[in-house]
Amino acid sequence: MLSTLARKLTAVLLVLFCIVGAVFTVAMIITTRLHNQEANQRFNSSLAAHLAADEKIVVDGKVDEEKAAEIFHMLMVVNPHIELYLLDEAGKILSYSAPPGKVRRKAVDLKPVRRFLSGDMSYPIFGDDPRDPGRRKIFSAARFPGPSGPAGYLYVILGGEEYESTTTLLQGSYILRLSLLVVGGGLFFALMAAVIFFHQLTRRLRVLAEDMERFRLGDFADRPPLLSGGGHPDGDEIERLGHVFALMAERIEEQIEVLKKVDAARRELVTNVSHDLRTPLASLQGYLETLAMKDSTLAPEERRDYLATALQNSEELERRVDNLLELSRLESPDMRINPENFPLDELAEALDQRFLLAAKEQGIRIETVSPEGLPFVRADIELIRRVLENLIQNALRCSAEGDMVTVSLSPREEKIEVRVTDTGTGIHPEDLPHIFERHFKSARASGTAAGKAGLGLAISKRIVELHGGRIEVESAVGKGSSFFFTLPPAGGGGLPE
User: Fold this and answer.
1) Cβ neighbours for 212, distance < 8 A, ≥ 6 positions apart
2) Of 13, 100, 244, 477, which is the most exposed, with the fewest CB atoms less than 10 Å away?
3) What is the mean pLDDT for each group of 10 consecutive residues in the chain (497 residues)?
4) Angle between the 456-466 and 300-330 helix axes, to the nearest 10 degrees?
């Protein structure tokens, strides 16, 4: 029943209005009764004094019972709302204007009477009700003179029994009834206005909740219009809530897209890795099976050739697995480099010497070109060594007899540029945007580079990115390729520790 916020707020407001209305009604009745009693007592404060002065109820210090009964009867006819009592000096009731059996007190406390006669104007003043021992009423009082002093008191109860109940008070007071009607109408109008206000106030919240529910049921793929609007960060609470929900929805959509891309990349990686490892693994298995089945029939020279080929495939398999592990480590969010200052030209010369023999066997010249006084660079020396090794190996793989591989080092815009250039087969323009992707294999490659697939360039790209740089390539088919990147000089800063 109270399933919505507007209904809950309305129910709470209704309860509060009922409590406030009840308190206000009780307070109004009490204050109205007190006001009536105060006005009545103030207006009739001299009534008892006039009666005591004008009527000879006490003669020679004694109450004239017949005279008192006559006067009491006359006053009851004129004003049936009053009750008259004659009291002696001790407060004992001597005579009264009431039917037999109605008066239940034999005496009245005189302290309120004396307070009244003292001139205290802080009305209403309440005295004992002779008809009810547990009730007190407003009154008027006066002394009766005796032959040698006061003979007693005239005690006049104002209002009688008619205005004791709330129902009687309401029936007898038009102003009170009108006031209560106005208050009740005002509370009802305020309640209806609050219901409408709460409904309008929570409408945006309901729409926002419905949009979020549709967004959830739609597998977070279709953002509702309200969430697309985005709310306003400087608006009220609902607008800020809508703004936050819009940002959350946008973030969820982005994360879903990222997860889809990651999942697609994972599937592609598994496929590529499986294909990449299957070739050397299948070749290794084939040669080993051949050795196992034909061992007794093979000549020693053939056995050595088979074992050498199996060993080469095993080494190739190990190399590819190592590359996978290395790339995974480099792409980890926890990967940190260890920069240090070192001479880049000496590192390049050392790598030239390492690949010199392999280059000579292929008929390829390899050299390093570096200016005198080249400043030190600040980088992770082992990772930069890995980049240069990958680029030189890639250049040798794409070159043929008579080609040349050059490692050039030169200052460039306050940085040191490293460039590995070959005069080999080159790269087709359509392949250039994908050359650094893992396991990319061009269908257009020819010669010694045909069919090759690996992670060397992807690893090199990641290492350069860790150093805050970017590796690029320039190539022309049949003329060769040039891979280049920059490193900061020693003292340049800017590298993560």
Assistant:
1) 224, 227, 245
2) 100
3) 66 80 78 80 83 64 62 65 83 80 88 89 89 88 70 79 52 66 79 76 74 74 59 66 78 82 74 70 80 78 81 80 76 83 92 90 92 91 92 92 93 91 91 83 53 73 91 92 93 53
4) 30
Whole-number pLDDT of residue 49: 83
Between CA 137 and CA 130 the distance in angstroms is 10
CB 418, CB 389: distance < 8 Å: no
State the virtual CA torsion across 53, 54, 55, 56 in degrees, nearest 10.
60
Q: What is the separation of C-alpha 20 from the centre of its chain, rounded to a whole number of angstroms?
A: 35
Report which of 322, 478, 439, 441 is spatially closest to residue 389, judged by C-alpha positions: 322
Contact partners, residue 397, CB within 8 Å, separation at least 6: 448, 449, 452
DSSP string of 364-401, one letter each residue: -EEEEE--TTPPPEEE-HHHHHHHHHHHHHHHHHT--T
Q: How far apart are CA 230 and CA 245, in angstroms?
A: 8
Confidence (pLDDT) at 417 = 94
Q: Going along 146-269, which residue ranges are E strands?
A: 150-158
Q: What is the pLDDT of residue 451?
A: 43
Surface-to-core class of residue 415, CB atoms within 10 Å of its CB (0-12 exposed, 13-18 middle, 19+ buried): middle
User: Token pair for residue 370?
Assistant: 């570096």
Neighbouring C-beta atoms of residue 322, cutoff 10 Å: 11
CA separation for the pair 336, 411 (Å, rounded): 26
Give the pLDDT score at 87: 87
| 8 Å CB contact between 158 and 81 | yes
139 and 156 Cβ atoms separated by less than 8 Å? yes
Burial (CB count within 10 angstroms: exposed 0-12, middle 13-18, buried 19+), residue 232: exposed
Neighbours of 451 (CB within 10 A): 11
Q: What is the pLDDT of residue 57?
A: 62
User: To which residue do tokens 């809530």 refer?
Assistant: 241
Q: Contact, 327 vs 458, CB < 8 A?
A: yes
Query: Do residues 339 and 376 make contact, with C-beta atoms less than 8 angstroms apart?
Result: no
- Write down the pTM of the prediction: 0.48
Residue 469: C-alpha distances to residues 169, 346, 457 (Å): 94, 21, 15
What region, left, alpha or beta, does residue 160 occupy, with left being phi > 0 and alpha being psi -120 to 50 degrees? Answer: left
Q: Which helix (H) or strand (E) holds 140?
A: strand 132-145
Torsion angle of the four alpha carbons 488, 492, 494, 497, in this order, in degrees rounded to the nearest 10? 90
